[in-house]
Amino acid sequence: MYADRAHPGYARPGIKPANLLVAIGINAAIFAALAFSAPTLVPRTDKPFDVRNIPLDPVPPPKPEPVREMKRVTPADPRPEPDLFVTRPVVETPSDSILTVTSIPQPPPPIGEPGTGTDIAPRAEPSPPPPLPVMVGAEIDPRYAAAFQPIYPGEERRAGREGRVTVRVLIGTDGRVKQVERVSAATDAFFEATRERALARWRFRPATRDGVAVEAWRTMSVRFELND
């Protein structure tokens, strides 16, 4: 081991008091500058505000709804149950013949010969009016009464429907039906069956005026019914 030996002319470095004071003064100056340069915080205060109650317009009450009238619905009559048996339609023969009656104008009464002086001509008696023509309406020919029955329509029979037909027929001077007009009918099928039968098979005794056959209209009704 070697002992430290002091070399001649070498001195150890040391801290001088003057340097220490200078260092302390510099640090104090820095802290002071930092203290004075720090920002100042100012607390924020909000401005006061005023609260007011503004009255609102009153809301009008809702309008009452109109009262709806309830209509009573009458249930329709149920259709009868279909039946496989067909009855013969009943033919009604109301008298509704339309005939035109023309009146014959009466001739003027004859004028008597003029008199002379104070003589008064005799007054001629009026002639009696001519008799009105005798009108007889068309009637069903009993020899063909059984042929008045129309054929029951198949679709109506299968559906179990019954009905009534009323027609006006123009009867010619030979007793045959020349024209058929529909007055009322339950269905088109019932009317067609009646119209075809009337034109083909219906026979009448023609209407007459003073014994002479004339054309005339007559209203006929036919009822289609099923057996119970």
UniProtKB/TrEMBL annotation:
Protein location: Cell inner membrane
Biological process annotations from GO: protein transport; siderophore transport; transmembrane transport
UniProt-listed InterPro entries: TonB, TonB-dependent_transducer, TonB/TolA_C, TonB_C
Functional note: Interacts with outer membrane receptor proteins that carry out high-affinity binding and energy dependent uptake into the periplasmic space of specific substrates. It could act to transduce energy from the cytoplasmic membrane to specific energy-requiring processes in the outer membrane, resulting in the release into the periplasm of ligands bound by these outer membrane proteins.
Basic and acidic residues composition bias: residue spans: 65-82
Sequence similarity: Belongs to the TonB family.
Native source organism of the sequence: Sphingomonas aracearum
Record-linked PANTHER family: PROTEIN TONB-RELATED (PTHR33446)
Pfam family, one: TonB_C
Recorded GO CC terms: outer membrane-bounded periplasmic space; plasma membrane
Record's protein name: Protein TonB
